[in-house]
Amino acid sequence: MLPIAMTHLANGNTDTGEVMGIASLHPSYGLASIFQRLTGSNSGSAMTEADKLISISYSQLAVFDHSLERPFNIWTDRHVAQGFAWRPGSVAFRTIEESGRHLVSIRVDSQRVVSKSNANRIIDVPFEVPRNGPVEIGSISDSVSIEMPPGIYQLRYECYEGVVDENPRIRLLFAKRNNPRFELVRADKEINLGADLLLTASPA
What is the pTM of this model? Predict the structure, then answer.
């Protein structure tokens, strides 16, 4: 069960954290140690990023607790309209492209940094990283496991329109927050901002 702070907090500051990317590292490492291991630098304040090529299917990219037996969510019309389907431990984001390989950039950071982005679609949701295993990121046909320090994060999803001869891009930003929120930060023409956000979903 997520803490009360994880319930619907649609209002608040619109700044979110950039992220220091962590891939396949043990969660007991401190952030400074992780940065040094990935880059060879002793500067723990800088950020790194892990890039993964992931094959998207059914217009969704999911982030979920690796231990879930049924990690994907059922999409209703309201979920499709708002661009995401969320429940504790699992969130699926609607992608602009229906399928194909996407370049997914993953960043994790405990620092509070304003994110400046030209993404076409930006969505913020709370996400709790478990202590008992990695986070899985992917779609029904393909996924990767990412280990990061456990805790409560503000997860920002940024989706970019495809460019000719390049893989479509997605960026996931994880930032530690005491009071993470749900917010449609930026919407393209496929996303409906008019209705209240639906903050429950059923396992698929």
Answer: 0.76
The Cβ of residue 51 has, within 10 Å, a number of other Cβ atoms equal to 12
Task: Give the per-residue pLDDT at 48.
Answer: 57
Range of weakest confidence among 43-57, 93-107, 183-197 = 43-57
Tens-digit pLDDT profile for residues 79-110 = 999 999 999 999 999 999 999 999 999 999 85
Rounded Cα distance, 47 and 30, in Å? 13
Average pLDDT value for residue range 166-179: 93
Hey, what domains does the chain have and what are their CATH numbers? 15-186 (2.60.34.30)
Strands 121-129 and 100-109: unpaired
Please provide residue 73's backbone torsions phi and psi, each rounded to the nearest 5 degrees: -115, 150
